[in-house]
Design goal:
Strand order of the largest sheet: 3-2-1-4-5
Number of helices: 7
Mean pLDDT: 84
Order of helices and strands: EEEHEHEHHHHH
Radius of gyration: 16 Å
Low-confidence stretches: 158-173, 187-193
Oligomer: single chain
Helix content: 40-55%
C-alpha cells in the first residue's frame, strides 16, 4: 500500500511517501516540501499548495493520503493557514477518489516513538531508523510528513477481533489506539457531548 503523508502548512507543506508492504514492512519512496510565497495573496498561496499536492498525488498514486489533524493553537493565524492547507490536501485526494486519514500529532508521536510528547529530533531519528535512511529527513516539515505516513501504516488493524487482535498489536500500535481513544473522548468533552 502506498501512503502519502502531509504535514500541512501554508508556507511549507511537507509531503512524504512510503510503501507499506507485507508484515507492515515500510519503505521510503519520496520526501519533499511544497512551498508558497508569503509575499503573494492568500488565494494564490493556497493554489500553489493545492497544485503542488495534486502533482505529488498524480505522480505517486497513493492508496491513502494521511494528513495531520489540525487543532487549535494559541496563534490563530497559524492554525487558520494550516487548516486551509490541510483542506487543499483533502480536496486533492477527494477529487481523485483517494481515502483520507487524519491523525493528531500525539497519535503520530506515539506511533513513531512510543511517547506522545516526543521532541522533533526524536521523531526525525525514529523516522530515519524505521525507513532505514542514512540521514535525518530535512526540513522538519518533510520528517513530519513521513511520520504521518508511518503512523497511518502502523495504525491498529480493524479486521481482527478481540484477543486475536490484541496479540497482533505492537506496543506502539496499542499506544496509538489508546491515544486515538483519548483524543476522541477529549474532543467529545470539548464539544459538550
Amino acid at each position: 500500500m502506498m501512503i502519502l503523508g502531509v504535514d500541512p502548512g501554508l508556507t511549507r507543506c511537507g509531503v512524504g511517501v512510503i510503501e507499506a508492504g507485507a508484515s507492515r514492512r515500510l519503505s521510503f519512496i519520496h520526501v519533499d516540501v511544497v512551498r508558497s510565497d508569503p509575499q503573494t495573496s492568500q488565494d494564490l498561496r493556497l493554489l500553489a499548495i493545492y497544485n503542488g499536492l495534486a502533482e505529488k498525488i498524480e505522480r505517486f498514486a497513493p492508496d491513502t493520503v494521511s494528513i495531520e489533524r489540525v487543532f487549535a493553537q494559541e496563534n490563530h493565524n497559524t492554525v487558520l493557514g494550516t487548516a486551509q492547507a490541510a483542506g487543499m490536501a483533502m480536496l486533492a485526494a477527494a477529487q481523485r477518489g483517494i481515502p483520507v486519514a487524519l491523525h493528531t500529532p500525539t497519535e503520530v508521536k506515539l506511533a513513531i516513538t512510543g511517547n506522545g510528547r516526543a521532541e522533533k529530533i526524536q521523531i526525525e531519528r525514529m523516522v530515519a531508523r524505521i525507513l532505514n535512511l542514512n540521514v535525518l529527513p530535512k526540513p522538519a516539515d518533510a520528517a513530519d510528513a513521513l511520520a504521518q505516513a508511518i503512523c497511518h501504516a502502523l495504525r491498529p488493524a480493524g479486521s481482527l477481533a478481540g484477543g486475536e487482535r490484541e496479540q497482533h498489536l505492537t506496543t506502539a500500535q496499542r499506544q496509538w489506539a489508546e491515544a486515538a481513544q483519548t483524543s476522541k473522548r477529549r474532543h467529545s468533552v470539548d464539544r459538550g457531548m
